[in-house]
Design brief:
The protein has 142 residues and is an all-beta fold. It is built from no helices and twelve strands. The termini are far apart.
């Protein structure tokens, strides 16, 4: 199952698909429903191509990739927020998904705008059904 949702910002897109196997990745312990999360520069066959510790505005884009676990068969509402190095909200999207099994994967893509976006510590915040369940940061430079 594939779905694609455009956010309020033209450069933000979200895609959710069913889960197969994923790499063991670093987890923010604030949620037991998110097993793993990773920043990546691209997806290949719906999998992260690499794991980023830092990113560059000149790189074009960045993805935050999530592996969900222990999900019930019901509709979930997700809201994503992206803040640049000056803590300005530069991306926001909402989408819903109903997993076909207890595992799921989703990702949010942000297209950098090097003439507008500010370098620094970028924050990616995910809310599930209105509750903040994940906050990840990554350093973004020119």
């Amino acid at each position: 199952m594939n779905s694609s949702v455009s956010g309020f910002f033209r450069n933000l897109s979200v895609v959710a698909v069913c889960v197969c196997g994923l790499l063991p990745l670093q987890l923010n312990a604030s949620s037991q429903l998110i097993e793993n999360s990773v920043f990546t520069s691209q997806l290949i066959d719906a999998e992260p191509a690499d794991i980023l510790d830092a990113a560059y505005l000149s790189a074009g884009n960045i993805f935050i990739y999530l592996k969900w676990q222990d999900l019930e068969s019901r509709l979930y509402d997700v809201e994503n927020f992206i803040y640049d190095g000056e803590n300005r909200l530069v991306g926001h999207s909402t989408y819903g998904f109903k997993p076909s099994n207890a595992r799921w994967r989703s990702w949010t893509k942000y297209q950098f705008r090097s003439n507008i976006d500010s370098p620094g510590d970028w924050r990616f915040v995910v809310k599930l059904d209105g509750e903040k369940i994940l906050e990840r940061t990554i350093y973004v430079s020119h």
